């Protein structure tokens, strides 16, 4: 069973303590593991390919509510740390809302991770993978769950954020946005 599927299954179990879920989340999403050799495969072409799976999101973007011409945000997404990480800077155009995410492919777990914070106090720790043309990241805290997906589309990048209150059985869309590249 893939590690992330195991994580999802364990965190959905009602008998599992919050302390155990926190520890498991920390291990899988924070990338804590023992590296016996002390070395990484930084020159490995397969690793480089995985580290660049999310590069389609890099750039300067205007963010619109999907299917409309309503501008809901602006985002500057850049490559950092010798192209091993992605930093997102998001803000609303006419309001006080701001947020940042730090994204990386964790070579120890084999999953992408995102750590999001905003000026309203929201913190999300997500993990996932690139599959079938989409970056899909999830977080589970008891029965509450978040699922965010990014997909390159003709006009830019579509981001969909869904939440669940029943451990992922039912999902509700809370954000559906279209990132359109700002022309220089």
Keywords:
alpha+beta, Lipocalin, 184 residues
Helical content (DSSP H or I, runs of 4+): 10-25%
Query: Number of DSSP strands?
Result: 10
Unreliable stretches (pLDDT < 50, length at least 5) are 13-17, 30-39
Order of helices and strands: HHHEEEEEEEEEE
Helix/strand layout:
Blueprint: H1 3-12, H2 18-29, H3 45-51, E1 59-65, E2 71-80, E3 85-91, E4 98-106, E5 111-118, E6 123-131, E7 134-141, E8 144-153, E9 156-164, E10 172-181
Antiparallel strand pairs: 1-2, 1-10, 2-3, 3-4, 4-5, 5-6, 6-7, 7-8, 8-9, 9-10
Account of the 3D structure:
A hairpin with a 4-residue loop joins strand 2 (71-80) and strand 3 (85-91). Helix 1 (3-12) packs antiparallel against helix 2 (18-29). This protein has three helices and ten strands; from the N terminus they run αααββββββββββ. With 184 residues, the protein is an alpha+beta fold. It is globular and about 45 Å long. The model is unreliable at 13-17 and 30-39 (pLDDT under 50). It is 16% helix and 47% strand. Strands 1-2-3-4-5-6-7-8-9-10 form a ten-stranded antiparallel barrel. It has a single domain (3-33, 56-181), classed as Beta Barrel (Lipocalin). The protein has helices at 3-12, 18-29, 45-51, and strands spanning 59-65, 71-80, 85-91, 98-106, 111-118, 123-131, 134-141, 144-153, 156-164, 172-181.
Give a brief rundown of this model.
The protein has 184 residues and is α+β, with helices and mostly antiparallel strands. The longest helix is centred in the first third of the chain and has 12 residues, at 18-29. Helix 1 (3-12) packs antiparallel against helix 2 (18-29).
